[in-house]
Specification:
One of its GO terms (molecular function) is precorrin-6A reductase activity. It comes from Paraburkholderia haematera. Pfam families: CbiJ. Keywords: Cobalamin biosynthesis, Oxidoreductase. This protein has 240 residues and is of the alpha/beta class. It has two domains: 4-97 and 217-239, Rossmann fold; 107-214, Rossmann fold (3-Layer(aba) Sandwich), CATH 3.40.50.150. The protein is 30% helix and 21% strand. It has a six-stranded parallel β-sheet with strand order 3-2-1-4-5-12, with helices on both faces. Strand 1, helix 1 and strand 2 (25-28) form a beta-alpha-beta unit. The longest helix is centred in the middle third of the chain and has 14 residues, at 74-87.
Length: 240
């Protein structure tokens, strides 16, 4: 198989990495736990933008870049497409489908942080499931609100915020327990898709809670797109 540079950090990416042999490289930004049970090489840290990634691809004789990063990791996806194009190496991407609202859902779509905070104005106890971004805004919490922020980072928090340092997958039972204990009145989410974090949406639906949903960013065109891990892995075997 052509030497693969797999850009990851998601559960889907880890599933792909577990199928790669020692010639290939799994690249992580460095947040969260670094897997230690893979046959492929593991690289941790940034590349220095698209130019640095292009140099790495050329120096390491990478023959295929596979972007399996988070659907909201727009910058690294852009860097991957630009870098691979600069050195004439194909770029594939796993583009997981987003969730679709169901009967009983109350989704409030927003495009950025300003729209998000405006949408939260009527509420008192939001649950943030955006990752670490809310940590940069803890000094902006409105007087009537208490935030719960679920992310990978440990953080001291503030008098009016609780930081839950944990990672998915999250079960329906566990989410029901959390929502009952904390009395959230709104959920803040990215439209990440997949099953690992979908249970919060089901619980919000059960409890009649609105969901402030951050729209997906536009991602660059690549040589091939895949909607599932299975399809991508099949293509990797064929390409080998």
């Amino acid at each position: 198989m052509t030497r693969v540079l797999l850009l990851g950090g998601t559960g889907d990416a880890l599933r792909i990495a577990r199928q790669l042999g020692s010639r290939h490289v799994y690249s992580l930004a460095g947040l969260g736990k670094v897997p230690d049970d893979l046959s492929c090489g593991v690289r941790v840290g940034g590349f220095g933008g698209s130019e640095g990634m292009a140099r790495y691809i050329a120096d390491e004789r990478i023959g295929l870049v596979v972007d399996a990063t988070h659907p909201y990791a727009a910058q690294i996806s852009a860097n991957a497409a630009k870098a691979s194009g600069a050195v004439g190496v194909p770029c594939w991407a796993l583009r997981r489908q987003g969730w679709k609202p169901q009967a009983g859902d109350d989704w409030r779509m927003v495009g950025d942080w300003a729209e998000l905070t405006a949408a939260l104005a009527p509420f008192n106890r939001p649950l943030f499931t955006l990752g670490r971004e809310p940590l940069a805004h803890l000094d902006e919490i409105p007087p009537q609100q208490f935030w719960t922020v679920r992310c990978l980072d440990t953080y001291e928090g503030s008098p009016r915020a609780r930081i839950l340092a944990t990672r998915g997958p999250f079960t329906l039972k566990g989410e029901r327990m959390l929502f009952s204990a904390e009395a959230f009145d709104v959920v803040v989410s990215k439209n990440s898709g997949g099953s690992a974090t979908e249970a919060k949406l089901e619980v919000a639906r059960e409890r009649g809670l609105p969901v402030v949903m951050l729209r997906r960013p536009e991602l660059p065109a690549v040589d091939r797109e895949f909607a599932s891990v299975a399809d991508l892995l099949e293509a990797l075997q064929v390409s080998g």
